[in-house]
Design goal:
Layout lengths: L12 H6 L4 H15 L8 E5 L15 E6 L2 H17 L7 E5 L12 E6 L9 H11 E12 L4 H8 L13 E3 L3 E3 L2 H10 L2 E9 L5 H22 L8 E8 L29 E3 L3 E4 L5 E5 L2 E3 L5
Parallel strand pairs: 1-2, 1-4, 2-3, 3-13, 4-5
Antiparallel strand pairs: 5-9, 6-7, 8-9, 10-11, 11-12, 12-13
Helix pairs in contact: 2-7
Amino acid sequence: MAFRKSDYESFDYSKFWEDNKRLYEDRAERLALRKLLAGVDGTNKFFFDIGCGYGRLFNEYKDFENIVLIDYSVKNLENARKKIKKFLEDNQRSLSSVYLIAADAAHLPLKSGCADVVLTVRMVHHLDDPEMYFNEVARILRGNGLYFLEFANKRNLKNILRYFIGKMDTSPFNLLPSQIGETIMNFHPKYIIRTLKKRKFTIKKMISVSNFRLNILKRFPGTKTLIFFEKIYQRIIPFVLLGPSVFLKSILDERTKEKTGIKSGVTLKDIVLCPYCMRQTLFFKKSMFICTHCRSTFKQKDGIYDFRIKT
């Protein structure tokens, strides 16, 4: 299993965002994502939100023609389906081109080169081995495909100040990831950049996010004022990576594989493969995928396809 000890089957992740305690973070992240997605044409594109949670950011990428939401937690996906179904009904769009998959991030049940765009927000800090996941992203993206990543920044201003006054032992300046508690892993921006470059990604833009994330500031001057200053920061000095969160846009070298995207009319059944034997030998029958090579079965229930590897 790729995830650390986070348990989203017994914890309703949507409640983490429902109160106003994290309204600032939500708005700050949306600001950054909109900047990075600006100008990206969603026509005839397969967009993947990996580690989608309960679909919090769906309305930011809703215009892509085909959307695949992936999470390890079925509970998260159930909440995502309810949220998205209501959103699409209000916006007169069909759910038929939106797919929900339960899967391990390190063993994605997807054909190589099937993705035009991949998004990962608030997920890699939960992974035991993020480099395995980045290998998977590079595998499923087509040449010239876009990868949008958010990661927890260990070299943030708060950590730097705490380190210099002796309240934090771990240096925020070394490139090794640092673990916070049992479930969170923070990364140095240079570590992320080097890791992606090894996989033939070119970093196009980086944005420091949630730059004023302090509880005392949320109370006074309050979220509205913080967002005002967040907009200024993200517009003027987004590359000064002192915030606790960093968003980046990268592009996979088109020489690594074919540049051509998915042809019109392709559906989920055309791009999935068996996560056990990694063969595209699946056929769909009676609400389940069956692998003709290793005989593994993967059920579909209430619109959610369960491709998790059983250990």
